[in-house]
Model the fold of this input.
Amino acid sequence: PEYYKQPFHAYSDGNLSWDAAMEQEIASCSVGARNFPKYGYRGEEMFRTSFDVALQKLGAYVPQNGVVLDLGCGTGTSTRRLAKLHPQAKKLLGMDLSPYFIGVGKRLLELAPKSIMEQEQQKLEVGGTDDDKNIGTWVNTITPDKRIELTVGDAAKTQLPDESVDVVNLGLVIHELPSSAAADVVQEAHRVLKPNGQLWISEMDFESPAYAKQRSNAMLFSLLRATEPYLDAYADGFQDFLYNVVAREFGSVKISAATGRHYSMVAIKNSDRKNVGGEKDTSIVEDTRFLSNGNYALDDTHLNLWESKK
Done:
């Protein structure tokens, strides 16, 4: 689709390049490190765990022999994590529009490299040299899993049969889509989910005080927006997306804070309640991101803009 041909993340060819694909996992690591700086190289693990915990509290569930569809999977970082977290799943299908990302993801599963960062940390803790066997060569340790399949495809037109998967996961994908495409993806998720299947969304929350403050500073937000062509539309359209897209399709939605500036959401496919959402329909949406006193439910642990990670 045309929207995908835009420059993303400072790459002139966006996600349609080997540079973007090769650097995706180290870029993801840097995001985690800035959100949870006190955990060092484990920052990304803490970042992703925050979403896992929030989703679990919201009732996220994969049935025995379930099928999980991971849309916008990139090189498969999220797909591999889902496989590790849900050993009861029969199949985990990662789908991404970029053949470059999928190509790198498939090769990583074949090579199964070890994490250079984990190895460096082990050398600090227990001693060791660069002559050690099985030296780490990648950002993360990759564990092959025959249940994982990575494929090139459009999240809005998956070509999968109706009611064929148990869970659809969208991890940090929606903010990279124009509003119309985001609605199309949610509709497609509803189509391929089985009755009572679940849609999981983990995303940036521009209603959180941390991001709201950053967005109020035009200069600072312009730096962030420069690498994310649809970020303004995402931020401005969140309430419409929540109530008039997700709630109208699914009829049962729960959303909570995952970090001090991100949320997790679980929507359950319930055909009896489809198209009954709408403007601020609290009978459909259970929103616990904010406490009764108006404060965001979780503290922001992100580095301040003037700080550098030690």
User: Anything to note?
Assistant: The two ends are 41 Å apart (CA to CA). The first helix runs from residue 18 to 35. The chain has a mean pLDDT of 91.
